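Q: My labmate handed me this sequence with no annotations at all. I'd like to see what the chain might look like in three dimensions before we decide whether it's worth expressing. Could you predict it?
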Amino acid sequence: MKYRLLGNSGLRVSELALGAMTFGTEMGIGVDKDESREVYNAFREAGGNFIDTANGYNAGTSEKFLGEFMAGDRERIVLATKYTMPMRGRDVNAFSNSRKNMMESVHASLKRLNTDYIDLYWVHARDYLTPIEEVMRGLDDLVRQGKVLYVGVSDTPAWVVSQANTMAEFRGWSSFVGLQVRYSLIDRTVERELLPMSRALDLAVTPWGIVGSGVLSGKYNQDPETKGRARARGQVDERGLKIAEVVIEIANEIGATPTQVAIAWVRRGPALIVPLIGARTVAQLKDNLGCLDVELSDAHMERLDAVSAIKPGFPHDMLSQQREARANRIFNHRDWFTP
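A: Here is what I predict for the chain of 339 residues:
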């Protein structure tokens, strides 16, 4: 495992982050403590130091497990957790980005994680209600108190993130150093605004959903019965199956698994990318880690880009056409003499 700086900070993180949403069984997608510990240990043995969770993952169980797993090793871990999601049923103030929910959430997370500080504290999602000034000031207070070292933002529009960091810089508050988004060959829409913004603001990107909810593993392409059920439930469509087909072809050509190819493509993305890998078993984790040994050629990237291409949308398509037209006029020597 190699390491890189997390955005515009001096924090060094492993080139893959472990997503701990599967630690616990309350959400119906995770595993018990023993299996979770094995996945954690395997990630650490591979050199991984960046671990991501949230207060709402399995009703807090993910944080509790990590608190136990990190005992005696806390200083070596770059620990990230989040707040926003509801934790107290019908309590109207237990769900939002408000200062009240922020402060209560961070104290509860610190207790579950059995630690004095959180390395990276994410705003889990935009709530459309809390003023961005309140959010950024509250996060800066946590940094000044030493409870949080860095702050990041997840699942939020680009213009809101830009506004937040501009305001923070102007007022001398702590700025976001990371951005968490959904990104894969199945869903590339973040390339329109969010990834270009991350480059401009020097934000690290930790994408989730990098295997497209399992579609890019090829499991639907290889089993007609599974494909039929998935189509009926709306879990996969023809576009996704076609993308997965190309992923499988390239995997066979280079001796890798489809999952490894899908993650390797994300790692080559147009930003500072630190993919979030999730695993329910050690075998799945090792398959994911195998992406570090996968080298996609430019020809492979072109094939994957072509089959998964999206329309840039307005104004990018219009501006691109105008730029191309201007370039043609400049390089067409006949236009040089046009009055």
